[in-house]
């Protein structure tokens, strides 16, 4: 079945540091890929998505590129802020309207 | 756009009582909504898929008689935790599927924290 693996946290960074969160996936078809962010005490917010190979999703300074050859969708941000402290979830869906398969989540803590 | 609300945001109840949680898509219609459960510092676990006008599809291991789901309209799905017990205490999150020409995206509600005493 489908699965998503992302690096375990917590990841602790200083403000303005570069952030990378690795995400790899296993799927039988051609999934759509997502990054969601969860701030403390809140539900998930869609951060970015990509629907086909070589697509780059971007939002709020975050980027991720759909790499079919390496089955990866790594999340990057060049200069993090304290407000980026949250849990980040990588996810995929195989087909339109289907359920999401989530990775385990990566907690990121940005210190001033 | 694509806002999903949940009500209540938190609830405390006594063991043995039932609790209803509402999930609404505010600015779009959703034929499909999903209910998740999240334990502290863990990922989301899909409980069931709620389809408007039909019975919900439950994931393996989820008791359908305990977690009643009703998708009464294109903007509202409800989850009722019946005869709640302390082990049902958790963070319940719903999502609504927004259909588009290019891809389908799930938009999540803010979650409901249930504490059963």
Report on the structure:
The complex is a heterodimer of chains A (112) and B (117). With 112 residues, chain A is mainly beta. Helix content of chain A is 0%, strand content 50%. Chain A has strands at residues 3-6, 11-14, 19-21, 23-26, 32-38, 44-50, 56-59, 62-65, 75-77, 86-93, 101-102, 106-111. In chain A, strands 2, 5, 6, 10, 11 and 12 form a six-stranded mixed sheet that branches. Chain A has a four-stranded antiparallel sheet with strand order 3-9-8-7, with no helix packed on it. A two-stranded antiparallel ribbon of chain A has the order 1-4. Chain A is globular, with a radius of gyration of 13 Å. Chain B has 117 residues and is mostly beta strands. Chain B has no helices and eleven strands. In chain B, the strands form two sheets. In chain B, strands 2, 4, 5, 6, 9, 10 and 11 form a seven-stranded mixed sheet that branches. A four-stranded antiparallel sheet of chain B has the order 1-3-8-7, with no helix packed on it. In chain B, a hairpin with a 2-residue loop joins strand 7 (67-73) and strand 8 (76-81). The mean pLDDT of chain B is 90. Chain A binds chain B through residues 32, 34, 36, 41-46, 49, 51, 89, 93, 96-97, 99-100, 102-105, 107, and chain B through 4, 6, 32, 34, 41-44, 46, 49, 93, 95, 97, 99, 102-111.
């Amino acid at each position: 079945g489908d699965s998503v693996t992302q690096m375990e946290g917590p990841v602790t960074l200083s403000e303005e540091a570069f952030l990378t969160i690795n995400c790899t996936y296993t799927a039988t078809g051609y999934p759509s890929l997502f990054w969601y962010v969860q701030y403390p005490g809140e539900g998930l917010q869609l951060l970015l998505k990509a629907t086909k190979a070589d697509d780059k999703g971007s939002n709020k300074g975050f980027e991720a590129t759909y790499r079919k050859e390496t089955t990866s969708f790594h999340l990057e941000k060049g200069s993090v802020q304290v407000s980026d402290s949250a849990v980040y979830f990588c996810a995929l869906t195989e087909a339109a309207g289907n359920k999401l398969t989530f990775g385990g989540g990566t907690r990121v803590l940005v210190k001033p | 756009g694509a806002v999903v609300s949940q009500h209540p945001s938190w609830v405390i109840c006594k063991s043995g009582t039932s609790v209803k949680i509402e999930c609404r898509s505010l600015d779009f219609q959703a034929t499909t909504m999903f209910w998740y459960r999240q334990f502290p510092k863990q990922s989301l676990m899909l409980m069931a898929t709620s389809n408007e006008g039909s019975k919900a599809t439950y994931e393996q291991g989820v008791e359908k008689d305990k977690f009643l789901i009703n998708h009464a309209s294109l903007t509202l799905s409800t989850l009722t935790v019946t005869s709640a017990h302390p082990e049902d205490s958790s963070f319940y999150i719903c999502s609504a599927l927004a259909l588009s020409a290019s891809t389908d995206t799930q938009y999540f509600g803010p979650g409901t924290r249930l504490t059963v005493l």
